[in-house]
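Milestone M4 deliverable, item 7.
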Amino acid sequence: MINAIIIEDESSSYNHLKQILDFEYGSSIIILGHATGVKSGIKLINDMHPELVFLDIQLEDGTGFELLDFFSNTATFEVIFTTGLRDYKEKAMDYFAFYYLNKPIQQDQLTTVIDRFLSKKSAFDVEKYFAFKNQIENKSKKISLPIANGDFIILDLDEIIYCEADGSYTHFFTINNKTYTTSNNLKKVETILNNTTFFRIHRSTLLNLKHIKQFNTSGEIKLSNDKKLIVSSRNKALFLKTLKQLNYSIN
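Output delivered:
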């Protein structure tokens, strides 16, 4: 059973969404609660610890993005935006939303998205996420990546050159010129790899500092596989500070 909540300030939209979910997924998704604003939504998430949040963008006391900012370093839930605003899809992807649905919600579109979510959950559930996270916190040098069909690939951290976001998935690029895709978004991967040598150089790329061959003041990085990446202007100062704190040198 998937624990979910709905954060929506329009009662008609809430009732319509819940009716579809109860009818189509009553045996697999339980709606634990309903909030109408940012503050009440934060409290509901902290109280209920949902695995899935249906989130409107325009709320009674702010935006859904403000709510997600509150959980920027601690979120373990997936988000499906349900909104009447049509100009925020790209921003929603910046927050690694699982999906973005426009109102009025169409039943067939919603069921397609939910079926995809349930399929993903079967391959990589919350318990696996915490086990995955604990590997790093316990200073393990290896990491297990859940891939297709419930299989896992075991990698040394030093084998990973960089990770790249692809919606709610992440691609891992390794020193043997192979790419592995895991059903876990980059934001969650970044949380898992906290306190290691990985650094988010921009919104879609998490880089292993050990694989830097060259960095210039324009923000361009050359990696051990000769791939070139750019550090965003927003992250450049912190990136330089991180290298300095590590007393980082390239041999």
